[in-house]
């Protein structure tokens, strides 16, 4: 096993990786910006290196500085966490070119799945169902109109290099299509430096279902069940569940087997998540994330597996020590992303946390790097932490979540806790009856 790992991230995910490493006897190196000099992930690591100024472009995205930090500390491997450089294929290549191990998939697979058009073509060849739409990038309005006519309106224009909902526009008829194309291209160019877009059939009431996978160097791939991530705002996940209220064991096993067969043929390595839209009993591939997900704890809660430990083992060349038949699912888990934002306007609320108290008890987990006296910087995403609860069934899980939200104290800044306190009392949430559009409609209704 590795002796020392550099964690190329910050906040709660850096803390999460640090804990797993220390439990395995692995020393850790934290990198940080000048704004994060007093951050908890820096305090908890065995060593730390400042890699640049507060803006992420000069620090957490500063590849030469990160490589230098590895060299001066003697780190043997780099764990990228999620976000920042976690899905940057060139970063993974550079790490390996310097004789280090990138704790993640092969660069070729990161690059393949990072291009939404090529990813869709690849998984279609591998037998994974895809949303009907264009086979490649749309070059002009006439081509877009032809594709839209063949799949039927409404259609979704999507950026090929996109993510996080950027570069996505809906056209409900031909009259809206030209504007949707223009807006998506402009947004994609600004966000990703690539204005290539493609077209897909827009599903009206789908759920967002994703399958967690783990693969080793010996061709073994297992899936760890599904997560339901349908509660979203502007295509950003807010609340995640494992398992999905919409799936039964038969549907889970079928799509899980389809995914593992495909990734076995692909020769995938490490953890990954294949994401689908699910409507009327059918799955449609939308993307694959070649990294650890923000919502991975709900999978850990129902399987009892530590996904970061498994990442480290397979990255070091180890084999998966269990079979698909050994994977069992116990109870239900829900994760709420607690952000430093106004719960109605979602305006960011950086600043000083004056008091911080997390809930506890059976089946309760809080992943956070915050503490009383910590100042939330304005330079990065607004995630304060994740509240994860587990129960023997979904009803118990919801009751536990309601109790935990009432115990959670974060004073000095605004947070999204009030939003979740509202959600746990909604009939549709209690019944598990919602689609990816439900939360947006709820927010419009309650803000009117």
Description:
- The relative contact order is 0.11.
- Helix 4 runs antiparallel to helix 5 and helix 7 (141-151) packs across helix 8.
- With 448 residues, the chain is an alpha+beta fold.
- It is 35% helix and 27% strand.
- The protein has an 8-stranded antiparallel sheet with strand order 13-12-9-10-11-14-19-17, with helices on both faces. Strands 3-2-1-4-5 form a 5-stranded parallel sheet.
Task: Give the neighbour order of strands across the main sheet.
Answer: 13-12-9-10-11-14-19-17
Query: Low-confidence spans: pLDDT under 50, at least 5 residues?
Result: none
- Calculate the terminal CA-CA distance, rounded to whole Å: 56 Å
Whole-number tally of structural domains: 3
CATH architecture heading of the largest domain:
2-Layer Sandwich
Fraction in beta strands = 25-35%
How large, in whole angstroms, is the Cα Rg? 21 Å
Instruction: Supply the helix-strand structural class.
Output: alpha+beta
Average residue-wise pLDDT = 96
Q: Estimate percent helicity.
A: 25-40%
The CATH class name of the largest domain reads Alpha Beta
SSE diagram, text form:
Layout: E1 4-7, H1 11-23, E2 27-33, H2 40-44, E3 47-52, H3 63-73, E4 77-79, H4 89-97, E5 101-102, H5 107-114, H6 116-125, H7 141-151, E6 155-163, E7 166-171, H8 174-192, E8 197-201, E9 207-215, E10 221-233, E11 236-242, H9 249-266, E12 270-279, E13 282-289, H10 296-303, H11 307-315, E14 332-339, E15 351-352, E16 355-357, E17 364-368, E18 375-376, E19 383-391, H12 394-407, E20 409-411, H13 417-423, H14 427-431, H15 438-447
Parallel strand pairs: 1-2, 1-4, 2-3, 4-5
Antiparallel strand pairs: 6-7, 6-8, 9-10, 9-12, 10-11, 11-14, 12-13, 14-19, 15-18, 16-20, 17-19
């Amino acid at each position: 096993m590795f002796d020392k790992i550099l964690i190329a991230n910050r906040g709660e995910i850096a803390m999460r990786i640090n804990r797993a490493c220390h439990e395995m006897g692995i020393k850790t190196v934290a990198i940080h910006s000048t704004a994060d000099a007093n951050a908890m992930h820096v305090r908890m690591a065995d060593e730390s290196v400042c890699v640049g100024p507060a803006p992420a472009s000069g620090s957490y995205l500063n590849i030469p500085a990160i490589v230098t930090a590895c060299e001066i500390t003697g780190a043997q491997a780099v764990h990228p966490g999620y976000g920042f450089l976690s899905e940057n294929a060139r970063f993974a290549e550079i790490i390996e070119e310097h004789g280090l191990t990138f704790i993640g998939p092969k660069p070729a697979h990161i690059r393949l799945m990072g291009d939404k058009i090529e990813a869709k073509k690849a998984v279609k060849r591998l037998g994974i169902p895809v949303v009907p739409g264009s086979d490649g990038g749309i070059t002009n309005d006439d081509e877009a109109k032809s594709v839209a006519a063949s799949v039927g309106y409404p259609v979704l224009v999507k950026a090929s290099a996109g993510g996080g909902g950027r570069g996505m526009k809906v056209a409900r008829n031909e009259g809206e299509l030209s504007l949707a194309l223009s807006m998506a291209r402009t947004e994609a160019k600004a966000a990703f430096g690539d204005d290539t877009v493609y077209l897909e059939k827009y599903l009206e009431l789908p759920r967002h279902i994703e399958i967690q996978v783990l693969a080793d160097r010996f061709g073994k791939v297992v899936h760890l069940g599904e997560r339901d991530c349908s509660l979203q705002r502007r295509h950003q996940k807010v609340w995640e569940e494992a398992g999905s209220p919409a799936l039964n064991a038969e549907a889970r096993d079928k799509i899980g087997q389809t995914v593992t067969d495909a990734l076995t043929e692909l020769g995938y390595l490490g953890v990954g998540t294949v994401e689908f839209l699910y409507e009327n009993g059918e799955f449609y591939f939308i993307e694959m994330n070649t990294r650890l997900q923000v919502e991975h704890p709900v999978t850990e809660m129902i399987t009892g597996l530590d996904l970061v430990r498994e990442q480290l083992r397979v990255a070091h060349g180890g084999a998966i020590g269990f079979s698909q038949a050994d994977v069992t699912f116990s109870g239900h888990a829900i994760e709420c992303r607690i952000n430093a934002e106004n719960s109605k306007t979602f305006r960011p609320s950086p600043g000083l946390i004056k008091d911080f108290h997390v809930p506890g008890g059976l089946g309760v987990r809080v992943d956070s790097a915050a503490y009383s006296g910590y100042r939330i910087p304005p330079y990065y995403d607004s995630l304060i932490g994740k509240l994860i609860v587990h129960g023997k069934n979904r009803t118990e899980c919801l009751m536990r979540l309601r109790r935990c939200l009432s115990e959670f104290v974060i004073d000095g800044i605004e947070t999204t806790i009030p939003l979740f306190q509202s959600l746990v009392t909604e009939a549709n949430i209690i019944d598990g009856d919602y689609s990816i559009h439900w939360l947006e409609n709820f927010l419009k209704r309650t803000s009117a």
